[in-house]
Structures
1.
Amino acid sequence: MADPTPAEVERYIAQGLACEHLAVEGDGRHFFATIVSSEFEGASRIARHQRVYRALGDRMREQIHALSMKTLTPAEWASSPAAAATSQHH
């Protein structure tokens, strides 16, 4: 089984979790995702990560060897420096 691309990991997450913003970087084995979802409202960091793992399902065990993530609510994202940088480019 070929290692997934960042775009595929992004698609896997988006299929299982409604995201307002989603960006995945990686090299096929190690990935870093920035995920913004209203589903994270009121959830702890651990609960947010578990929600993403549920969205990925078996792929997390079988295809994705390492995933680091930043999980934010829309309000947290709106006040983050990354959001400001992203909006300036569009």
2.
Amino acid sequence: MEPIVPMEPKIASEIPTTENWIAQVKWDGVHVLAYNDGSETRLFNRKKRERTFNYPELTDIQSFCSAESVILDGEIIALGEDGKPSFHKVMRRDGIRKFDRVKSLQQQVPISYMIFDVLFYNGEWMTKCPLEERLSLLTDIIVPNSHVQLVRSHDDGEALFDTVVDNGMEGIVMKRLDSRYYIGEKRDEWRKVKNIRDLIAVIGGFTLSGGIVNAVLIGLYDEKGNFIYIGHTGTGKLTASDWRELTERLQSIQVEQTPFVNKVDRHKDAMWVKPSVTAKIHFAEWTEGRFLRQPSIQAFVDVPAEKCVLTEDMKR
């Protein structure tokens, strides 16, 4: 089976209230599709990069799925000490490239696959079937276990969003029950309503304290390819070890001149780098000057720097 680009929701600010919509928690994890052709199971992320060896807990698909062949869509999450999904923790598993470390990390960072859709079943594509039918099929073929769960659907999106806010989680996704699955598209039939705002940004500079990076200067590209400074942060989910590793990584790509085209605060103490290291950033809002308020680093991600483009929907 060739990997595909999954369907994604569009960002929205309002929660639909009509009866033909359901609400699901937006899990803060890694979007992964599981493919099984009847003989083997392979996992790919939404960029079509293989993750089969990162998550061996999911490769025995017959232990939780009764289909003879199937493509499942879902989110892989890892829980933090507070019992909430932690993007930083799941990236410890997703970022593994030396697979001899996977076995030990399985114990340190247990994961769950939160399944929310089925695209292919027993030799037939299900993408033209309405979501309501696909969800019913999932309940028939999936048997949850310690590493696999079905995402619950809720009738009251406003109530679910209130619960998400109370628990400091990322947001919800609203879906039309009659929606088909549009491979590789963002569609208005699925709407993402965020509590915690986030984006993927590129590091363009840093400052040091005691020889260790204590803050990074981040940016995004505009539609003309200019690298725009959007803020700096020294807070987030990184450990002391993460900061030390980041220091080595950034010092190895230092450059003489700032890569940003606009004025940068803290520039007197800053050192510049080639824009290549990308990170998921949580933030409160955009300021009028087009900077991030209260940004914090969640984890480093495998996203090409040139793909980190400033768009209008980021500001909703």
